[in-house]
Design goal:
The complex is a heterodimer of chains A (about 250) and B (about 600). Chain A is about 30% helix and about 15% strand. By secondary structure, chain A is of the alpha+beta class. Chain A has 2 domains: about 110 residues, Roll (Ubiquitin-like (UB roll)), CATH 3.10.20; about 140 residues, Alpha-helical ferredoxin (Fumarate Reductase Iron-sulfur Protein, Chain B, domain 2, Orthogonal Bundle), CATH 1.10.1060. In chain A, strand 3 and strand 4 form a beta hairpin. Classes of the chains: A alpha+beta (about 250), B alpha+beta (about 600). At the A-B interface, helix 1, helix 2 and helix 3 of A face helix 1, helix 3, helix 4, strand 13 and helix 10 of B.
C-alpha cells in the first residue's frame, strides 16, 4: 500500500525585495508529526510536489517545546509556534507563511529585534546595585508570585503583535507583550521603585494609548498570559502617573 | 590605561553571567550568539537550582551539597572548585532573587525548596517547572540594562567559526559568520569566553535545543584545546519520545512525589488507571528504598533500561514506563509543575493530571567538555576561557539534577572576572597583533565555505548523514557501552566523514543559507562524536553515566583520572590527568541505602 501523504504549501521569498512564490510539497505522513518535522522533511528532500528542485526552507526554531519563542509563524492563517502545531490537528493542505508585522529575512524567517529594542526602551529590568552578596531579595507573598510568574513566562514570540490591528503601517503600538512586561516590573517590590520611567516610555505615539482594546492578543498567546488584564492595569498606572506628574508640574 | 577587549561566545546563563561580570569590571563585552540570547537553551531547564540554604529545618549545609555532588559524580570531579560552587550557591540564589526571579514562595514569603535526585534534602529553589526560563530572563534583563548603557554589545545572529591565534598560539580574536548575510569576519579581543552549551545534536535527537551542536567546542579542539571526559554523557530517565526532539519531563515531577512504575503483568492491556496499586511494579522504590524515585539520573536510566529490555516489562511491549503524578493534588500540580504538564498535554494530547505519562530515557547533558584549569575557567589556549555545559569541571561522571544552573552561573562569573584580569595583565594587547593574523584566519574560513558552495557534484544530504550519526551514537554510546559496538561506531563515523566530503548543499545562496551553516556544524559534530566514542572505548570501567557490562565496577586504581583528548594533525589522541580528591575520601557509590 502506498504511504499516506499530505500537502504543505509554503509562502517563499528569497529576500524581502524579491518575488513571492507559493511552493507545494507532498510529505509522507507519520503519527505525531509537527510543522518542524515537515520543514525537516523538505530539507532532506527539497523537491516540490511537481518534482522540480527546490531549496530547504529558512525558518527560526530552537527549543522545539514552545518555551524559546523562536518558531512563530502563520500556520493555516493563525500566528502560532510551529513546534506545537501538530499535523494531526491541522486542516490540509497546511499553509505556512511568515509573520507579517516584522521585516522579512527569508521564507518563514523574520527579524523580531524590535521587540527586544522595546524591552530596552521601557527599562524592563530590576535595577540591582551589583552582583556582590547583598543578602536575600525582598519577601513576596505566594499570591504576588503567582501573578508575577504568569507574566514572566512571556517568550517574546510576537504572536500578539501579529494579531493586533493597531500594529500596522501607520501605527507602531509596542504591543501587549511589552506592556505586560512593564506591568511585571512595576509590581516587583524593587521594580516598583522605578516605575515612573517605564510608564513614561509608554506615553505618546506607540504607547499604551494606541491599544484600542481589540482583545485579539490574549487569544493567540501560547503561554496564556492575561495580556488584556496587563493592558488595563498599565493603562491605569499611566493615567495616574500622568495626573501626578501634572500636579508636580513636571 | 588601555581598555581591554573581551568577547563572549554564547548567551545562555553562563555567557550572560560572564557578560555581567565583565561589564561590572568596567570593561565592554561583545556578546556573540546564534539566536537572540533570550532564546538560548538555558530556557529549557525546568526543575530548579540547588543551594543548601537549609530553610526547611533539615540541617542541610553547603558541605552536604558538596558531598552529594562529588558522590553523585562518582568521584571523578576535581573537588576544590565543586566545593567553591556549593559554598557560593546560597548567595547565587539571593542574587537571582534580587534580580526579580519569580521563585515559588512559602506562606511566610520566603523561597520554597523542593527535593531533587541524589539528595535527601529539600535543596532546590524553583520557579514553577520553568526555572531555567526564569533565570535566563533575569540575566537577560540585567544584560539588556548594560546594553542600554553601552557596556555590552550584542552580536545576535552570528555563529562562531574559529579562534584567531597568533604565531605564539595566543588567542587574539575570533572569526565568526553573520547568519543573515553569510559574511565571515574577524573580531579582535584580548580574551574570549566560550559558553556554548551542550552537544545534544551529536546524538541526533536529545532533550537539547537545535543550537546545541558542540560545533564551537569542536572547532576550538581542532585548534589545540583539550576536550576532557567526553565519554560522560547523561541520559535523562524521563522524556517524551518524538521524531524531532525528545522532550524532557523534569526530575521535579518526581521531586514533588511523582512515581515511576510498570504493570506487574507484562503487556497488561488495561488502561493505567484501572490497574490496582498491588499490581503495579514501582521498581525504583523497590530497588532503592532510601532514595526511591529520586536516585540519580544514571541509576534511574539504567533501571528503566533493565525493566524494558531485560525484563521485557515496557508498556505494551514498547520502550516506555509510566511517570505518574495523578495522585498529587491538582492545586499542587498547577502551582509547581504546570509548565511541564502543559508540554506533555500539548505534544501527546493526553492530560497528565488524569493519565500517567509515558516516558523513556533521552540524551540530555554532557558532563565532559572543554578542559579548563582548577581556578580560572581557563582552557589550555592562552586567552580562551570556558564556562557552563561546554566545559567539564563540575559534574564528574554524572551530574545531579538542578546542579547545572548553579554551575553555569558560578563558572560564568569566575570566567568573566578571570578574563578581565588576564586581559589587563597583557603586556601587548590585540591592537598590536598584525592584521595579517586576522586575515589569514578569515581566508581560511572563507575557503571552507566557498568550497562547500562551489561543490556541485555532491550526492550526500547533510540531514541524512546527521541522522545516521545520531542513530549510531544513541544506540552504542549512551546508556550501555560494549567495546565491540564502540569499535563499530568508530568505523561508521569514519564512513560518515568520508561521505561528508561528498555533501550536496542544495542551497547556494549567500543570504540566510541555513544549510551552509548546518553543514559546517555537522563537520564539527563528526569530530566530537569520535572524541566521545574513543574516550568511551578506552575507559574500561563503569563509573557514573559510563556503564560497561564487560567492566561492571568502578576501577579507581586504573581509571580515577580525567580523559584529555587532543587533536594532532587530524588524529585524536588521549592522555590522562590525575583527579584532585584532596577534600573527600573515595567511597563506593551506591543508592540502595543512605550514604
Amino acid at each position: 500500500m502506498a504511504d499516506k501523504t499530505f500537502i504543505v504549501k509554503i509562502k517563499r521569498q528569497q529576500r524581502s525585495d524579491e518575488a513571492v512564490r507559493w511552493e507545494e510539497y507532498e510529505l509522507r505522513y507519520r503519527p505525531h508529526m509537527n510543522v518542524i518535522i515537515c520543514l525537516r522533511d523538505i530539507a532532506e528532500k527539497p523537491f516540490t510536489r511537481s518534482g522540480s528542485e527546490s531549496t530547504p526552507v529558512s525558518y527560526e526554531a530552537n527549543c522545539l517545546e514552545e518555551i524559546c519563542g523562536a518558531c512563530a509563524m502563520i500556520v493555516n492563517g493563525k500566528p502560532r509556534q510551529a513546534c506545537t502545531a501538530l499535523v494531526d490537528d491541522l486542516e490540509k493542505p497546511i499553509r505556512l507563511e511568515p509573520l507579517t508585522k516584522f521585516p522579512l529575512i527569508r521564507d518563514l524567517q523574520v527579524d523580531r529585534s524590535s521587540m527586544f529594542e522595546n524591552l530596552k526602551r521601557t527599562k524592563c529590568w530590576i535595577p540591582i546595585d551589583g552582583t556582590y552578596d547583598l543578602g536575600p531579595g525582598p519577601r513576596m507573598s505566594p499570591e504576588t508570585q503567582e501573578v508575577g510568574y504568569a507574566l514572566s513566562q512571556c517568550i517574546t514570540c510576537g504572536n500578539c503583535l501579529e494579531i493586533c490591528p493597531k500594529v500596522n503601517e501607520n501605527s507602531h503600538f509596542v504591543g501587549a507583550a511589552i506592556v505586560s512586561q512593564v506591568r511585571l516590573f512595576n509590581m516587583h517590590p524593587t521594580g516598583k521603585m522605578h516605575a515612573g520611567p517605564r510608564l513614561e516610555a509608554l506615553m505618546g505615539p506607540g504607547g499604551i494609548e494606541d491599544c484600542d482594546n481589540a482583545q485579539n492578543c490574549v487569544k493567540v498567546c501560547p503561554k496564556g498570559i492575561p495580556l488584556t488584564e496587563s493592558l488595563a492595569a498599565v493603562n491605569g498606572q499611566v493615567l495616574v502617573h500622568a495626573v501626578k506628574s501634572f500636579f508636580r508640574g513636571s | 590605561m588601555r581598555q581591554p577587549k573581551i568577547i563572549i561566545v554564547g548567551g545562555g546563563l553562563a555567557g550572560l553571567m560572564a557578560a555581567i561580570r565583565v561589564a561590572e569590571a568596567g570593561v565592554t563585552a561583545d556578546l556573540f550568539s546564534i539566536v537572540p540570547v533570550k532564546r538560548s537553551h538555558s530556557v529549557c531547564a525546568q526543575g530548579g537550582i540547588n543551594a543548601a540554604k537549609n530553610l526547611k529545618g533539615e540541617g542541610d549545609s553547603t558541605w552536604k551539597h558538596f558531598d552529594d555532588t562529588i558522590y553523585g559524580g562518582d568521584f571523578l570531579a576535581n573537588q576544590p572548585l565543586v566545593k567553591g560552587m556549593c559554598e557560593a550557591a546560597p548567595a547565587i540564589i539571593d542574587l537571582l532573587d534580587r534580580m526579580g526571579v519569580m521563585f515559588n514562595r512559602t506562606p511566610e514569603g520566603l523561597l520554597d525548596f523542593r527535593r531533587f535526585g541524589g539528595t535527601l534534602y529539600h535543596r532546590t529553589a524553583f520557579a514553577g517547572a520553568t526555572t531555567g526560563q526564569q533565570l535566563l530572563y533575569a540575566l537577560d534583563e540585567q544584560v539588556r540594562r548594560f546594553e542600554a548603557e553601552d557596556k555590552v554589545k550584542k552580536f545576535e545572529g552570528w555563529t562562531f567559526l574559529s579562534a584567531v591565534l597568533d604565531h605564539t598560539g595566543v588567542c587574539r580574536g575570533i572569526c565568526a559568520m553573520d547568519l543573515k548575510t553569510m559574511e565571515i569576519k574577524t573580531f579582535a579581543c584580548d580574551a574570549a569566553i566560550f559558553c556554548t552549551g551542550g552537544i545534544g545534536a551529536v546524538f541526533g535527537r536529545s532533550t537539547n535545543s537545535v543550537v546545541c551542536t558542540g560545533s564551537a567546542q569542536s572547532a576550538l579542539f581542532q585548534q589545540g584545546a583539550y576536550y576532557a571526559n567526553g565519554e560522560f554523557i547523561q541520559v535523562h530517565p524521563t522524556a517524551i519520545p518524538g521524531e524531532d526532539k525528545l522532550r524532557l519531563m523534569s526530575e521535579s515531577a518526581r521531586g514533588e512525589g511523582g512515581r515511576v512504575w510498570v504493570p506487574k503483568t507484562p503487556q497488561d492491556p488495561r488502561p493505567a488507571r484501572q490497574i490496582p496499586e498491588t499490581e503495579r511494579f514501582y521498581f525504583l522504590e523497590e530497588w532503592y528504598p532510601k532514595y526511591g524515585n529520586l536516585v540519580p539520573r544514571d541509576v534511574a536510566t539504567r533501571a528503566i533500561h533493565k525493566v524494558v529490555y531485560e525484563m521485557k516489562m515496557g508498556l505494551a511491549g514498547d520502550p516506555a514506563v509510566y511517570l505518574d503524578v495523578t495522585h498529587i493534588p491538582r492545586e499542587v500540580l498547577e502551582r509547581k509543575l504546570e509548565g511541564i504538564l502543559e508540554i506533555y498535554e500539548k505534544f501527546v494530547g493526553v492530560d497528565p493530571h488524569v493519565e500517567p505519562m509515558k516516558v523513556f530515557p533521552a540524551m540530555h547533558y554532557t558532563m565532559g567538555g572543554l578542559w579548563v584549569d582548577n581556578e580560572n575557567q581557563a582552557t589550555n589556549i592562552p586567552g580562551v576561557y570556558a564556562a557552563g555545559e561546554c566545559e567539564y569541571q563540575y559534574h564528574g561522571a554524572n551530574r545531579l539534577g538542578a546542579n547545572s544552573l548553579v554551575s553555569c552561573i558560578y563558572g560564568g562569573g569566575i570566567a568573566g572576572a578571570a578574563a578581565v584580569r588576564y586581559a589587563r595583565s597583557l603586556e601587548s594587547g590585540c591592537e598590536n597583533t598584525s592584521p595579517a593574523v586576522y586575515e589569514r584566519e578569515r581566508v581560511r574560513q572563507q575557503d571552507i565555505s566557498d568550497a562547500l558552495l562551489n561543490q556541485h557534484t555532491g550526492t550526500e544530504n547533510p540531514l541524512t548523514i546527521w541522522r545516521e550519526m545520531g542513530d549510531i551514537m544513541t544506540e552504542n554510546v549512551t546508556v550501555i557501552r560494549y567495546n565491540a559496538a564502540l569499535q563499530k561506531t568508530l568505523l561508521k563515523l569514519d564512513e560518515l566523514s568520508e561521505r561528508f566530503k561528498r555533501i550536496n548543499l542544495q542551497d547556494r545562496t549567500q543570504w540566510s543559507n541555513q544549510t551552509l551553516n548546518f553543514v559546517r556544524e555537522l563537520g564539527n559534530m563528526l569530530v566530537l562524536a569520535k572524541v566521545i566514542t574513543l574516550g568511551a572505548l578506552a575507559r574500561n570501567e563503569t563509573r557514573g553515566a559510563h556503564y560497561k557490562p564487560e567492566f561492571p565496577d568502578r576501577d579507581d586504581k586504573n581509571w580515577l583520572k580525567t580523559t584529555k583528548a587532543s587533536w594532532n594533525a587530524g588524529k585524536i589522541q588521549l592522555e590522562y590527568e590525575a583527579v584532585d580528591t584532596s577534600l573527600l575520601p573515595l567511597r563506593e557509590r551506591k543508592y540502595t541505602a543512605a550514604k
